[in-house]
Amino acid sequence: MVQQQQQVVFDAAVLSGETDIPSQFIWPPDESPSPEAAEELDVPLIDLGADEVVRLVGDACQSHGFFLVVNHGIDAALLEEAHRCMDAFFTLPLAEKQRAQRRAGDSCGYASGFTGRFASKLPWKETLSFRYSAAGGGEGVAEYLLRKLGEEHGRRLGEVYERYCGEMSRLSLELMEVLGESLGVGRGHFRRFFERNDSIMRLNYYPACQRPLETLGTGPHCDPTSLTILHQDNVGGLEVWAEGRWRSIRPRTGALVVNVGDTFMALSNGRYRSCLHRAVVNSRAARRSLAFFLCPEMDRVVRPPGELVDDDNPREYPDFTWRALLDFTQRHYRADMRTLQAFTDWLQRQPQPQLQAAAT
Ligand SMILES: C=C1C[C@]23C[C@@]1(O)CC[C@H]2[C@]1(C)CCC[C@@](C)(C(=O)O)[C@H]1[C@@H]3C(=O)O
Ligand SMILES: O=C(O)CCC(=O)C(=O)O
Ligand SMILES: [Fe+2]
Predict the structure, then answer these.
(1) 8 A C-beta contact, residue 200 and residue 236
(2) Which of 156, 158, 147 is nearest to 100 (CA)?
(3) How far apart, in whole angstroms, are the C-alpha atoms of residue 112 and residue 127?
(4) Closest by Cα among 293, 269, 273 to 184
(5) Rounded CA separation 77/148 (Å)
(6) Distances (CA, A) of 181 to 153, 184, 191, 265, 269
(7) What is the CATH number of the domain that holds 120?
(8) CB 64 within 8 A of CB 242
(9) What is the mean pLDDT of residues 192-196?
(10) From the CA of 335, how far away is ligand 1's center (Å)?
(11) Is any atom of ligand 2 closer than 6 Å to the C-beta of 288?
């Protein structure tokens, strides 16, 4: 009982070897992983240079919304360097990492077990998140990491992740062309919408855990963002809810995992669904993943193109801004499998002037 009220410090170096884990990290039995290994999900491995890309992406987005891409133009050396930099950061002493500590209500910075943020069902992970603005407004990735971590630790990280985010943004826009074509709205529509994206980059580090069946690295959720491009190391742990059970997405060196998020589900007027997923941990090895969350400019109105709305397909979601949805996930609601519904219900309860932002 007493333990439940104490704020634990999630120090991976200590906790990954403990056979008892703090109660705040224990998830209820109906949400925790089952002892049987999850069967692998057969996700399409899409060659971005191939002729069939549009059809394959469209099919994947109408079923579970997850697919893998290869021949994506991201340099293998950059991917390796991005993982090396993650190691360099997460193996720093806790106090050094805490120089970038995430503050309440903010979506950027270093967070460890989310101990100060949530009271229960804590995720078994450390994260470092930062903003990437394609339009170049405000502080860039390199400046942010240098400012927070200092010359010794921040310089190299900043250079690498600035480059990594630029490449992810470029790839996202390419994927937006494919998504636009597959939805019949033309290649330019979503590309233009996201040209000045204001995205979030997140480094996820899941320490080993001696009680992997009682906790989760990332709880079940749909990404509230628009499109996620994830690179996982070769440890494994990403699972997707498909056909009524949890299924694993096996790591493949060089392939990127792509999935649709809630904001794109709204932009497609529900044609493409965001899909429930989670990350499990294990007792053998720490796991790393790099997630680039494509997001629109903060005040741009999220509204599906006219071609996707008609009498047979009325609007599924009201107009909203990414600023409002992001704020909802940071201040009012812990993102899960029903974030978008909870958000639209909440929006509708707000006084009229706050209901919709001015169209941009
Ligand atoms: C806008 C966001 C909120 C979360 C990060 C993200 O950029 C996209 C996914 C969200 C998240 C990962 C969904 C699961 C719960 C969460 C709290 C987490 O475990 O990290 C979510 C992120 C958040 O920081 O709120
Ligand atoms: O680490 C992973 O494989 C998934 C993480 C995730 O779903 C997220 O950060 O939104
Ligand atoms: Fe996710």
Answers:
(1) no
(2) 147
(3) 6
(4) 269
(5) 26
(6) 43, 5, 11, 16, 15
(7) 2.60.120.330
(8) yes
(9) 98
(10) 6
(11) no
Task: Give ipTM to 2 decimals.
Answer: 0.98
Close Cβ partners of 94 (under 8 Å, ≥ 6 residues apart):
9, 11, 13, 112
Give 1 Cα–ligand 1 centroid separation in angstroms.
28
pLDDT band (50, 70, 90) for residue 352: low
* 15 vs 150, higher pLDDT: 150
**What is the distance between the alpha carbons of residues 161 and 201, in angstroms, rounded to a whole number?**
9
pLDDT tens readout for residues 312-335 = 999 999 999 999 999 999 999 999
Q: Which ligand lies nearest the alpha carbon of 27? A: 1
Mean pLDDT of all residues belonging to the chain: 94
Query: Looking at the 3D structure of the chain, how many domains does it have?
Result: 1
Quote the ligand 2 centre to 239 CA distance (angstroms). Answer: 9
In a domain, 303, yes or no: no
Active site residue 271: no
Atom of ligand 1 nearest to the CA of 117: 17
Atom of ligand 2 nearest to the CA of 202: 9
Atom of ligand 2 nearest to the CA of 249: 3
Residues with CB under 6 A from ligand 1: 107, 123, 200, 202, 218-219, 221, 223-225, 293, 326, 329, 334-335
Residue nearest to atom 9 of ligand 2 (CA): 291
Of 280, 267, 291, 259, nearest to 340 (Cα)?
267
Region 28-40 average pLDDT: 94
Whose CA is closest to 128, among 174, 96, 81, 176?
A: 96
What is the residue with the minimal CA distance to atom 22 of ligand 1?
335
Note whether residue 206 is domain-resident: yes
Among 125, 197, 226, 329, residue to substitute to test ligand 1 (most atoms within 8 Å of Cβ): 329
Quick one: average pLDDT of 14-40? 93
pLDDT of 2 reads 37
Residue 185 forms part of a structural domain? yes
Mean pLDDT of 7-23: 86
Answer yes or no: is 141 within a domain.
Answer: yes
Q: Does an H or E element contain 39, and which?
A: strand 39-40
Q: Which of 287, 288, 300, 303 is catalytic?
A: 287
Domain range for 271: 27-296
